[in-house]
Design a protein that fits this description.
CATH topology of the largest domain: TIM Barrel
Protein name: Beta-xylosidase
CATH class of the largest domain: Alpha Beta
Number of domains: 2
Strand content: 15-25%
Helix content: 25-40%
Keywords: Glycosidase, Hydrolase
Strand order of the largest sheet: 21-20-23-18-17-16-1-19-22
Radius of gyration: 23 Å
Structural class: alpha/beta
Shape: globular
Family: Belongs to the glycosyl hydrolase 39 family.
CATH superfamily of the largest domain: Glycosidases
Organism: Phytohabitans aurantiacus
CATH architecture of the largest domain: Alpha-Beta Barrel
Number of strands: 23
Pfam families: Glyco_hydro_39
Largest sheet: 9 strands, mixed
Distance between the termini: 43 Å
Length: 543
């Protein structure tokens, strides 16, 4: 079967505004992995993704416990009470988490939650023992309930933020994001209170933050999905409602955050991705924010932006998640992030970030199919190399046209499930460099021939030759530790030598030495072939 060639045109003179490094946000359910060996190694890689600042969001930063991590669990023990019911504050574990971030060039997107055991209205049972395959609702225990005393809740938040200012400095903490709870909109999930009780929880927490640091960046609410009427009620409250904590009008809102998830399935024994579902969530969330004139310039962070809804649901139990170890996750990430830029342009909103809820799962079998950036032993997965590629895109975003691109509205309606893949590009121009990110994506993980691509770049601001091309790839054969792991027999616990071999296979390295390309009338032509489910970065540089 032949694949029709694709023509991609990049006009380096057609600026579309600054390239927004929305990729630089990450997060995880399990906060305590951050200071374990593989977690520290991965944080250091995240901190080096590019010139833009990276941020990390984690659940359970206020949960009671000894700091031992487990799937969908974490704790810091920052608040307990003595025998007389007096507060006892301990920042040791929370500091260890934030220290790990900052030492590796990553800043906190600080989630204020969940409820300490001594403060919960329904404290027992408290710590769960969930594993993949168990009922998901088992995780929602005593930490998901409202506080017994909202003043004590506010005081805890105040003391935590004041401690951070004292430890890290005012100018540092001013750069962080502070956001209350997670996905409070579904009934009987992360929040076991009413919507009004959540707004009260939010108001008291934000008041505590601002009392400690009046210039702190605060926002939310990080809804499950775009939030619908629940989100609108929250925004109305923040803009015009009576503040539960102060009695004044409104609650500070420096950014708005919601979540967007895909919905993979298994069709005829193979994974089918749900890109349409994720992009529809994004578009609805943007539309809600854009409907408020007061918020048209307010930054938006998609606080969880992922192909599915459960990072800890491994592919060994949930076969629809088998995409995670492979180049399919990489190509999906490239195509989905590019379309989020397009949706923000269309809705006229200020998109600041799209947070990937992927980190690592310490001590689990290698390539167990968790949604992660690296597998056990610190081996980067193919998707992480796409974030390394994103880090090379800086400066001004420039126009791209592709004969192989699937229309945005078609993708939102039907996904990428027809006879043609989605083959397109994203490009950014900076001083002496044009970075072009290309992908060949399809929702269905089925074999297909390579796609021939004819890339034309016009109006390149290079005055004369030479123009050099450096090319990077992520596909089944390049930047792909999973392929190497399968070739060595798929060991669940690789030896030290095998881990070294896997790390080498997963490295982000050029295909070869930079080569010169012909420049004529500020135009270059490049011919290549893109395998299905591949991502390619082409860096054009000149003096």
């Amino acid at each position: 079967m032949n694949t029709a060639p694709v023509s991609i045109a990049v006009d380096a003179a057609a600026g579309r505004g600054p390239f927004r490094p929305i990729h630089r946000f990450f997060g995880a359910d399990e906060p305590n992995y951050a200071y374990l060996p593989d977690g520290l190694a991965l944080l250091s890689e995240i901190g080096r993704l590019g010139p833009a600042q990276s941020y990390f969001r984690a659940h359970s930063l206020m949960v009671t416990g000894d700091g031992t991590p487990a799937l969908k669990w974490g704790s810091t023990n920052m608040y307990t009470e003595d025998g007389d019911g007096n507060p006892v504050y301990d920042w040791t574990i929370a500091d260890r988490i934030f220290d790990a971030y900052l030492a590796n060039g990553v800043k906190p997107y600080a989630q204020i939650g969940f409820m300490p055991r001594a403060m919960s209205t329904h404290p027992e049972p408290y710590q769960h023992a969930w594993r993949p395959g168990d009922p998901y609702e088992d995780i929602f225990t005593g930490w998901a309930y409202p506080p017994k005393d909202y003043d004590a809740w506010r005081d805890l938040v105040y003391r935590w933020v004041a401690h951070c200012v004292e430890r890290y400095g005012r100018s540092e903490v001013e750069q962080w994001y502070w956001q209350v709870w997670n996905e409070a909109n579904p009934t009987d999930a992360y929040w076991r209170g009413t919507p009004e009780e959540f707004r009260k929880l939010h108001d008291y927490a934000i008041d505590g933050v601002r009392r400690a640091l009046p210039t702190a960046r605060v926002g939310g609410p990080d809804t499950a999905g775009p939030g619908g009427q629940w989100m609108r009620d929250f925004l109305e409250h923040c803009l015009r409602g009576t503040n539960h904590a102060t009695g004044g009008t409104g609650t500070p809102l420096d950014f708005v955050s919601f979540h967007a998830k895909g919905a993979p399935t298994v069709v005829d024994g193979r994974v089918r991705m749900g890109l349409a579902n994720q992009l529809r969530d994004v578009d609805e969330g943007f539309a809600i924010v854009a409907s408020y004139p007061e918020l048209r310039g307010t930054p938006i962070v998609i606080g969880e932006f992922d192909p599915d809804g459960c990072a800890a649901c491994s592919a060994t139990v949930y076969p629809q998640n088998a995409y995670r170890n492979t180049e399919l996750y990489a190509s999906y990430t490239a195509a989905s992030f590019a379309r989020v830029h397009d949706l923000a342009d269309r809705r006229g909103v200020q998109l600041e970030g799209a947070l990937t809820w992927s980190f690592e799962f310490e001590g689990e079998p290698a390539f167990a199919g968790f949604r992660a950036l690296a597998t056990t032993g610190g081996v980067p997965l193919p998707v992480f190399n796409v974030f390394r590629m994103f880090g090379k895109l800086t400066g001004e975003r420039v126009a791209v046209r592709s004969s192989g691109e699937i229309d945005l509205d078609t993708i939102m309606a039907d996904g990428v499930r027809g006879p043609r893949p989605d083959v397109s590009a994203l490009a950014a121009l900076d001083n002496g460099q044009l970075a072009i990110l290309l992908w060949n994506y399809h929702d269905d993980e089925v074999p297909a021939p390579d796609t021939p691509v004819a890339l034309t770049v016009t109006n390149l601001p290079a005055r004369s030759a030479p123009v050099r091309l450096t090319e990077y790839r992520v596909d089944a054969r390049h930047g792909n530790a999973h392929t190497a792991w399968r070739a060595m027999g798929a060991p669940s616990h690789p030896t030290g030598a095998q881990l070294a071999e896997l790390r080498e296979a997963g490295r982000f390295t050029p295909l070869g030495e930079p080569r010169e390309v012909k420049l004529a009338d500020h135009t270059v032509h490049i011919a290549t072939r893109l395998p299905r489910q591949s991502v390619c970065l082409m860096l054009l540089t000149w003096d």
